[in-house]
Amino acid sequence: MTKTTMTVNGKTVSSETEGRTLLSSYLREGLGLTGTHIGCDTSQCGSCTVLLNGLQVKSCTVFAEDAAGAQVRTVEGMAEADGSLGTIQQAFQDHHGLQCGFCTPGMVMATAALLAVNARPTEAEIRHHLEGNICRCTGYHNIVRAVMAASGQHVAAIAAE
Amino acid sequence: MQNFELVKPASVADAVRALARDGAQALSGGQTLIPTMKQRLATPEVLVSLTGIGEMQGVCTGPGGLHIGGATPHAVVAREAARYYPALAALAGHIGDPAVRSRGTVGGSLANNDPSACYPAAALASDAVIVTDKRKIAVADYFQGLFTTALDEGEIITEVQFKIPEKAGYMKFDQPASRFALVGVFVAKHAGGVRVAVTGASENGVFRWHEAEAALDAGFSAARLSGLVAPSRGLIGDLHGTPAYRANLIAVLTKRAVMAAS
Amino acid sequence: MPKDGGIGASTVRREDIRFLTGKGRYTADINLRGQAYACFVRSNVAHGRINGIDTSVAQSMPGVLAVMTGADFAAMGGNPAGWLVQSRGGETMKEPKRPVLAHGKVRHVGDAYAVVVAETEDQARDAAEAIDADITELPAIINMDTAIADPSNRVHDKIENNVCFDWGWIEANRAAVDAAFHSAPHVTTLELVNNRLVPNAMEPRASIGDYDSGTGDYKLYTTSQNPHLSRLLIAAFVMGIPENKLTVIAPDVGGGFGSKIYHYGEEAAVLAAAKALNRPVKWVASRSESFLSDAHGRDHVTKIQLALDKDGTFLAVRTETKANVGAYLSNFATVTPTFLHGTLMAGPYKTPLVYVNVKAVFTNTAPVDAYRGAGRPEATYSLERVIDKAARELGLDPWELRRKNLITTDMFPYTTPVALVYDTGNYQATLDKLIELSDKAGFEGRAAQSLARGKWRGLGLSTWIEACGIAPSALVGALGARVGLYDAATVRVNATGNISVMVGAHSHGQGHETVFAQIVSDKLGIPASSIDIVHGDTSKIPFGMGSYGSRSLAVCGTAMTKAVDKIIAKGVKIAAHMLEAAESDIVFEDGKFSVTGTDKAKTFGEIAFSAYVPHNYPLETLEPGLEETAFYDPANFTYPAGAYSCEVEVDPETGKVTVEAFTCADDFGNVMNPMIVAGQVHGGVAQGIGQALLENTTYDENGQLLSGSYMDYAMPRADDLPMFTVDHSCITPCTHNPLGVKGCGEAGAIGSPPALVNAVIDALHRNGRTDVVHIDMPLTPSRVWSALN
Q: Cα separation of C389 and C761, whole Å?
């Protein structure tokens, strides 16, 4: 066992790891940050998406020790300082961009990564960006609307209900 | 997965030393290796992470064309190769999904040589040179069948040098589940001739479609390809497509890659 | 004007706050003090005889606490089928025992025959790999025709020909139907496959068993759509423990779509292991395990025939279906292809004669059970495809052919020839709405634009109807159901006026916490923020049958409404006493009990307080407290219906189909929260498009699941789907529940597959390929291209 330290949601944290400890396990079991979900074992579903040094990664496909010293952001770090929903989170609630909530943390983090590099994405750009995040509930319709809204664009411009 | 020791060398030399240990294996972006280890189909005892090696990162032009560090992630290639080699940048920008592109690397992709990966098509069509810690390998000698390459055990791809063609286009037809290439065709028009490289289709991995190259050498237009039938022998048949379907895709995508070439 | 709260308002969901901030609490997120971890050992062959299992190496490995095999559970009961179906000849279906762990034989790849419990998940997995099972492989029975034809090769040794039942609906009508076909001017025949699907809720199944050796109480945290049903099955049927000694908690559940209705052996195994070890035992499925062991959906092979007059009047429908039930009967496996399928074969049409035959067949594949829509998508697909084919054969417009045969509004209540009584509907209205919203008039122009880009555009439609809110208990009991199909709710008004509502329905994405609170708020005139909806815990809730079959609102919502009515009725009595008025003079409105014609009134809060602090209270005639429970058993099914269209582009060179537009015009009766209803339809349509275009569950001849991960099983992704147009403004309220609601959860998955396939066939026919009359789902590029070449 090694003590692995990194910065998660702005706080320096450390937890015991083995070589095989995945970043997702480090977050979930090591730190109790269970907002990061595990939906598959082939690195396809995106439920475990977090930001690693600002980049969108699947935390189930990164070893914790490879992320030592890095800046990690999870869904638990997306709210405002006063605890109220952040812009992306609020847009997801306002536009019913989630149902069962299981893929939602990954969707929120993927959206954060998209908006960091593309402040006003088109519908097609949003859909392309979200291809690594599977949702079984929403049909993506309201997720696309939520991302549009989170980027300050008029949701009505893309489609009626 | 089974446990192992993760080492994080800062230089190629340190990585080579670490890879000499028993049961050692290189870890680049891990986007294929980690899922494989979860299935316990790979059980290394030492994993040597290459992502922290500065000398293996980056995109620049050089005597070999476009030189890309072996540990450069796809997302960086997509961004930084765009002004030198747009077709290659576009290819990198459509590998996997954004998270895969954050981690997965050109060296990792070429070392793995998945028959459905995109980079092998680009490397073959670009007459690339694979630079390792101990030698340079011409691409013609590099690919040796499914998941097999000329790399020796413990040999690391430090850089890939892509010759920049006059025009190039890549067309990928997604396998609908994995989003790997069901078939991908990279067409590159070099001063010395056209190269057409096909991935996803063959049971022997990436290959050149010489008949199409000859036709396009006579004139670089899609019309030159009309009537040309791709060989269906040795093509993959699986639940996503028969060999005949893949042969059709090769022809259609080659035509479209030529039309899209810039 | 949109309302800003209460019934009919698009209130945003309160549960979203915890889901969006990472505070949802799914089973895998729960860790009990001292818990150990279970890993199941699963068969890698489809069919084999277990000669022996050597666990000795595994037993001695680091961290291993226990190894149990099928033999350890052999004395326990089987996991039963929920419905006993009678075959045509009157004999009862074959019901083989479904053990907790396979014993004697393994019957599908993924069939669990042992479990290892260890200190850590990795140790459990390491030891599971060290278990050495001596299994003699037997020929795999995969194809249903082969299964029926070969009397010697049997999934279950005592079931010859592998047939569970051979069901006719309605057998007495068969001769009349056959006669109608014999004399019909035109008969259209279509053979089709309703492809097997893997439900793929994004949260894999997980269970934690816990046992208190001091009290003898068991507790199970599990990914369930209906914790009470799981408790009943585990306690009374499988483990033989008193129901009052088992608590089942289904916390936040990450989607179900049917796959989490059922009790699975892993749940009993972790409970038994927890008792044996006297510590909690946790199991979380990997996605690979889910693919192999979750109940799959659909998997019908059907021949359907439609008899018509020359003018297109439907005369009769006849179907023969083989329904794959897999290796064991999952809990709803027998009702899904029968009473949820055959009874819907009239659709929304006036067809006077219908006969349905279904053979259920055992195979060496994962059990098949209800998946979103459950039987009704299969019925709708068969019917809507054969109607489309008939229209082409007769040269009739498929839109007008449907309209001509729809049941008209003057015919309700309408008794179908397959024994349902549709209470109300307006199928012409939804069809008209669809024509408007889909811009059918502009289609030719769009098709010309597509063709200019080398793409073939097609427009297809389907109508759909379903029977949901499955009930009434007396009827389903007569048909073979082993449970009642009512639901229950308790409304507990606290002394300070806030409210806890305990409901038997379970929310795993549907938004009950918000919508049910909207309804109670509306009825009681108090803010929704003072109302909590409690679900998913058998120790807190009176009873419930959970959520499936689009039943939550129509059945549990009604129970809740009736409990609220009882609260109001008691409040009237309290108010009459406090206000010194006759009960008949008290009116309850906007949260106030008033004496009619006066300004004398008591607020709801004052009444609640008085009920718990009964200083001025009619104690001689009325108990203190303000808590009411209602059970509701519906008088009939509800019958939501609608019409869907799909517009596709086909790339003739590659066979790739892209969905350009999808439009839904639905009648769900009264709508409680339009935002949530729209979301339910979006999700259902996405699953329907997934079935029609992408999802290809394939077993090879040896019974290996080729599409066993997201690398090969194509889930709909964001870039596979268009924006949807959905409408639910056509409303005929349900006549037999007080909210006038019908149910919307399954609609999208029922109506969409035939619309899509019809659209592709339309695209081919418009471009000269009239020789292609059918392509089986999923319409992958490879399949479409093969049909064209």
A: 9
Cβ B31–A43 below 8 Å, yes or no?
yes
Which among A110, A5, A3 is positioned nearest to A58, based on CA atoms? A110
The strands making up A11-17's β-sheet, listed across from edge to edge, are: A11-17, A2-8, A71-73, A49-52, A55-58
Q: Taking chain A, what is the end-to-end CA distance rounded to the nearest angstrom?
A: 53
**Chain B hits for A133, Cβ within 8 Å:** 97
Note whether A61 contacts B178, CB cutoff 8 Å: no
CA distance A20 to chain B (A): 5
Q: Under a CB-based contact definition with an 8 Å cutoff, are residues C485 and C471 in contact?
A: yes
Q: Is this model's pTM higher than 0.90 or not?
A: yes
Backbone φ and ψ of C659, nearest 5°: -85, 115
Contacts of B117 in chain C (CB under 8 A): none
Would the CB atoms of A57 and B103 count as touching at under 8 Å?
yes
C625: left (phi over 0), alpha (psi -120 to 50) or beta: left
Sequence-ordered list of residues with C-beta below 8 angstroms from that of A70, at least 6 positions apart, any chain: A6, A7, A52, A53
pLDDT confidence tier of residue C1, bands split at 50, 70 and 90: very low
Chain C nearest-CA distance from A68, in A, is 22
Mean of pLDDT values over C224-237: 96
- C72/C383 Cα distance (integer angstroms): 48
Identify all chain C residues contacting B245, using CB atoms and an 8 Å cutoff.
655, 781-782, 785-786
Chains contacting chain B through 3 or more C-beta pairs under 8 A? A, C
List of chain B residues whose C-beta atoms are within 8 Å of the C-beta of residue C654: 173, 248-249, 252
CA distance C185 to C317: 14
What pLDDT sits at residue C3? 63
Q: Bin A63: left if φ > 0, else alpha if -120 < ψ < 50, else beta.
A: beta
Cβ-based neighbours of C224, under 8 Å, separated by 6 or more = C230, C248, C250, C253, C260, C261, C506, C536, C546
- Considering only alpha carbons, which residue of chain B is nearest residue C719? B176
Secondary structure (3-state) at C16: helix
Nearest to C694 by CA among B82, B96, B178: B178
Average model confidence (pLDDT) across chain A: 96
Whole-angstrom distance, CA of residue B109 vs CA of residue B128 = 14
Condensed to tens digits (0 to 9), the pLDDT of residues C146-202 reads 999 988 899 999 999 999 999 999 999 999 999 999 999 999 999 999 999 999 999
- A chain contacts of residue C23, beta-carbon cutoff 8 Å: 35
Please report the pLDDT score of residue C475 as a whole number: 87
Cβ–Cβ gap A36/C22 under 8 Å:
yes
Q: How far is CA B143 from CA B109, B139, B224, B254, C190, in A?
A: 12, 7, 28, 21, 49
The alpha-carbon gap from C631 to the nearest alpha carbon of chain B, in Å, equals 45
CA dihedral B61, B65, B68, B73 (to 10 degrees): 100
Whether C204 sits inside 8 A of A38 (CB atoms) is: yes
Query: Can you read off the two tokens belonging to residue C595?
Result: 């004496």
Q: In chain B, which residue's Cα lies nearest the Cα of C651?
A: B252
